[in-house]
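Subject: Interface between my chains keeps coming out wrong

I've been trying for a while to get a sensible model of this assembly. When I model each chain on its own everything looks fine, but I need the whole thing in one frame so I can look at the contacts. Pasting all components below, labels as-is. Any help appreciated, I'm running out of ideas.
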Amino acid sequence: MNDDQTVFIVDDDEGVRDGLSLLLDTVGQSCELYEGGQEFLDAYDGEKRGCLVLDIRMPRMTGLDLQKILLEMGSRVPIIFITGHGDIPMAVEAMRRGALDFIRKPFREHDLLERINEALSIDEDAHRKAQDRQELAEKLTSLSEREREVFERVADGHMNKVIAGELGISERTVEVHRGQVMKKLGVRTLAQLVRAKIDMELSTEAGQPHDGTR
Amino acid sequence: MLYELLAALTSILGARRAYVTENYDPGMSRTVASWEDGEPGPVREYALSGTPCAAVMRHGAQVVDCELGSRYTLDQSSIGYGCESFVGSPIVNREGEKIGQICVFGARPLHDPEMASALVSLAAVRVSAELEHRQEQAAVARSEAGFRAVFDQRLHLAGILSVEGKVLEANQKSLDFAGLTREQVAGHYYWDTPWWSHLPEKQQRIHDAVRAAAAGETVRFEVTCPRFDGQLATLDFSVRPIMDKEGETVFLVTESDDITERKLAEEEARQHRARVAHVARLSTLGEMAAGIAHEINQPLTAISLFAQAARRMVDSGNFARMAEVCHKLNEHALRASDVVERMQTMARQGESEKRVVDCNELIDSAVKLAESEARIHDIQIEFDRGDGLSLVSVDGVQIQQVALNLLRNGMEAMITDSGVAGRSVAIRTRMRDGNEIEISVSDTGCGIPDEYSDKLFTPFTTTKSSGMGMGLSISQAIVRAHGGGIGFYNNDGGGTTFWFTLPAAAERETHHE
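Reply #2:
Try treating it as a single job with all components included. I did that and got this:
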């Protein structure tokens, strides 16, 4: 399990919290315990990485309520719901809203740990992608106006000659800009350049990097 | 006596007939004693009108010395038939009323009317005393007969004892009860009569009661006693003193009601109520099954997690926290068993005994049961424990049932309401008027519509889509059987408060720490 990832446990039952933390402790997974949704939100730091193990039934703020608030905040922390008997309709609703999975009490440690691992790797993945996007975005900002125009056209598959015509510059100048772009973006092949363009478009399409829509 | 007097009068006055008469209806008279032609005559009843007797009643003593028949031509009676003379004098009682007369009829004219009149008047005074004496005796006899009739026909088994405790009188009902004759009891000490003599353990109690009554006390208690057919009857027995004007005890009166039937009916009603309450508890538990399952599943989940963690610790040879884990395993196992215990208590059949308990403890248990359901519906139960509550003597399970019913009603009122967060039901215990404890449950739900408020406590009334509508009627039956009251009011700020009261346990029943 991951050192810099935390399993956030939100359950109103102290025994369940206690047992979960002890079990995670034996596999070397760090966790934080909260007895209610509000307590979690008060301590919540969007930068922290990990996953949420969330009791679906709690007084005051239910698991579903907390999920909704997190979505509205743009958090994409993976959520595993803890459900009891007769909570299936709520679990279905939670899944419909994008929960990763739900596990029924009492848990089999295999299922539990597997789900948590899965959630953490999804979080890891998302984190890495976000990081990549972040880096790309930074690299893109280092491009000059002209370099950006050349980058977009090259990535769209236009020939140097056509680009030179469109921009009213020489083919040779296009080639220089193109070399500069590849250097600045840290790519070596045309294929990688195309990929960077797609990633860029994906992150702009998505608007905010964390918006919670699916 | 009257005959001798009449015989003497006729002989002295040389008369044929003499009568002592009494008036029995207005205008009607009859002979009390009659002497005719030397021997007692028949009883004659006659209308006064037209007779010389009427004149006596109107004007006092009368003398007709001759030719009686021609003077009283309207006389339809045969009282002086064929006689020549008449002497009559009214008989006057102590109050001065003319109650009858003495009259003498002669076959010949009177020699000396004045002497005759004086003689008859004298006789009238003597007869007056005699008649009055007879009337008093008759009145006493009538009153005695009346007393006997009333005494014997009483619904109670009744008896009259002397101050020493000897039976003077026993009514027929009391004799029939044990199949006795008056002779078997009259003159015997009450506790030695066959009513009690074969119940040595009761004899002493009866003896003590009679002695206490003789000392001026009224004693009353329930006692079982075999009837004539050998069946055991329950009597509501009492003995009390009857005092004269000076306050001296002159008699003792025993009264017993055969309350066997009533006791049986009460017992049957009690058992019936217990059965209905039990069925209702079971159905409540059924409705609460989801919550209870959740409540048990929580500690089971914890136990399962601790056990799995423990296995991993063992596998990795790390025993440092093993003691702590074992402790927690036990703790949560006990927690699960508490839930089961509470449920079992509610599921228990029949009545538990009445015990003197702290009301707060009872309510606490009911609150914990209700919480399993509250959690599912995201409702908080706030228990406001009153301080310095008197103890109560109750069937704990039944009182918890009432509290649970009211808590669940309160919750359901809010579930049907819109799903607002932060809903809560408040239950509080308080002393009321120093001698009873009030338990009230307030919700912030939709309130009770007016059209339901009258019949809320009648069986099968429900404002809910589920449930039988038995909860409140059973709660009412339980509370009343405990000598308390139950009711509700709609809160000013919305929602409803249901309350019930329990009488504080009597001081001698409470145990002080």
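Reply #3:
Confirming on my end. The two ends of chain B are 85 Å apart (CA to CA).
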